[in-house]
Amino acid sequence: MRKVPLSKKQKRAEKIKKTLIHVGIWLLGLLIVIALGVFAVRGFGIKTVIIDQSMNPTLQNEDVVLLNKLSNKIGSPKRMDVVAVRIGASENSPTYVRRIIGLPGETVQIKDGKVYIDDTELELTFNDAAIENAGVAEKGETLGDNEYFVLCDDYNNNRDDSRLDSIGTIDSDQILGKVWLIRSPLSRLGLVH
């Protein structure tokens, strides 16, 4: 069978149809890229600025860090995660960056300069100095179902953590997200451990 040649009008209609398909695919791709960008910024691009020395040497004063807000929605915070926490109920309450050392249901005790979780010594790899002030954890602090015990990395020079009565244990809804990246200064760019 022989193919019947298309008329000029049919060729033009075919060309317009192909062009519309290409433009539609391009627009769909553009929408997907925009949606992924919004998702990434909303979930992983929330920035905060470190305003003290409490997390030295992991984080330093004036480091700009990015938070992963989705980490709490996907799973629970883990021991040794560095997190941003809001102390207080209002949006204007101070935000601190601290390290989680105690998880829900555990008993945290600081004695003889060391941290114990359920009577087992916890190795603190971020700071090997003995803890000089146990605060409320001296006798042991048992955490509730949604409570976490947070500690400064520079715990002997700073006490704005769960050792203070005024801060205490952190409820899961006070955790704003996991700190995952130092964005600036560029000389310190890298992942947070």
Automatic annotation (TrEMBL):
Q: Which residues form the Peptidase S26 domain?
A: 30-180
Lipid bilayer topology: Single-pass type II membrane protein
Q: Which compartments is it annotated to reside in?
A: Cell membrane; Membrane
Q: What's the catalysed reaction?
A: Cleavage of hydrophobic, N-terminal signal or leader sequences from secreted and periplasmic proteins
Instruction: Kindly give the Pfam families that the UniProt entry links to this protein.
Output: Peptidase_S26
Asked if Membrane is a keyword of the record, the answer is yes
Known EC number: 3.4.21.89
Q: Which UniProt keywords apply?
A: Hydrolase, Membrane, Protease, Transmembrane, Transmembrane helix
Q: What class of enzyme is it?
A: hydrolase
The cross-references to PANTHER family, in alphabetical order and at most eight, read:
CHLOROPLAST PROCESSING PEPTIDASE, SIGNAL PEPTIDASE I
Identify this protein by name. Answer: Signal peptidase I
Q: Which organism is it from?
A: Coprococcus intestinihominis
